Known about the structure:
Layout: H1 4-17, E1 23-25, H2 41-58, E2 71-73, H3 75-82, E3 98-103, H4 114-132, H5 148-154, E4 158-162, H6 166-178, E5 181-187, H7 192-200, E6 204-208, H8 212-224, E7 229-232, H9 238-245, H10 247-257, E8 268-273, H11 278-291, E9 295-302, H12 308-314, H13 343-349, E10 355-359, H14 361-375, H15 381-384, H16 386-391, E11 406-411, H17 419-434
Parallel strand pairs: 3-11, 4-5, 4-7, 5-6, 8-9, 8-11, 9-10
Antiparallel strand pairs: 1-10, 2-3
Helix pairs in contact: 3-14, 4-6, 4-9, 6-7, 9-11, 10-11, 11-13, 14-17
Pyridoxal-5'-phosphate binds next to helix 11 and helix 15.
Amino acid sequence: MKTRTTDETERVMDDLRNLRETFWVNPDAAGFRKGEGIVDPEEAESLLRRFAPFLAELFPETGNGIVESPLLEIPSMKAALEAGTAGIPNDTKALPGRIFIKCDHMLPIAGSVKARGGVYEVLKFAEETALREGILRRGDDLRKLGAPASKQILSRYRVAVGSTGNLGLSIGIISAAIGFSATVHMSSDAKEWKKRLLRENGADVLEYAGDYEKAVAAGRREAAKDPFCHFVDDENSADLFAGYSTAGRRLADQLAGMGLRVDRKHRLYVAIPAGVGGAPGGILYGLKEIFGDDVIVVTAEPTHAPAVILGLASGKGSGISAGDLGIDGDTAADGLAVGRPSALACRTMKTRLNGACTVDDERLFAFLGLLWKTEGIFLEPSAAAGFAGLLHNDMREYPPPDGNSIRVVWATGGSMVPEAEKQVYLSRALSALAARD
Ligand SMILES: *Cc1c(COP(=O)(O)O)cnc(C)c1O
């Protein structure tokens, strides 16, 4: 007789292979323990605080130099979802609890969740380099880095990254602002406006025909030859991960500031779009360190580009990719268009992530259109995936949301999308929505 787990794995793998929307419940999340020390979110937060006065100078739009986004309640979107628009896969159609959107699409510097990981990794490298070069001593005001003499020394160093877009934007913009040389390796089909924006900000953009993995491999090879080059490795970077993990405490403080408590009676349900899993994995890590089992987290990915769900459900982690199943990676959610999950993310998510789902592009656009119509909020397609996760928060393995629950959809990007591009997305979104009415 087959065990339930084997049946479940087969069902999910079969759905993934056939590009059907699916949902996987992680049987291992019950065994979660705090404090395995993979990264230290508090230490990362303290570096970000040290840098805040300097960042406030470089990026006045941050206000106090802390890169953070608002948490907004979306009651009209909630009502529309409850009315069944965009498709709710449960029978009750009720979404108990309050629904919020975590507005990382509004994060300064990069306009996406990548500002969390990318800014942290580059700042950490800047501090280490400055200490080594004698530009700074421990305890110094980091605004010293802005002095022309410091910038001149830092300009000998290069930060490189391979990216489909948003990570490149984040790394390129912050690196150039600090005074580093910056190289972004991109596949040639990456969005034109992202390449242009990077070049305008002083980053070098190198384009590669063929796929993203090739761009990353080329970047990694180049960087390994150059002792003055720091390569940001989206698939394995503990620094990126640490930067994302600070979001846990930040969200906890925001909730507390709104008078919302999270405990056994008031659970927090969070849904986050996933690409390689670094951003959602880091956020998940930070949240679980604070809330333990009182937070329930699911990821969402396009049916045409499953990575995290594939690595976790199959148990193969980064040893499997969507391409192995013949899945084409063809999705409008370009921030999620990767087929192989990060090894680091899979390792940390294995005992923490409660569930994972996939969503097809048409439904993604329906969410996008609905959010625009009901709340006037525009997201890029990748960022709307979280709504699919929200609708999958009802898992029989975990306590279901009730009237006391707080539900957060992590909106991961969109504010830097140029107007013309935005109109194209919105018209597709509104017709996807009309088709479901
Ligand atoms: C990168 C990205 C994600 C997912 O982050 P990963 O670290 O790749 O999992 C989600 N949404 C947007 C808009 C992104 O740019």
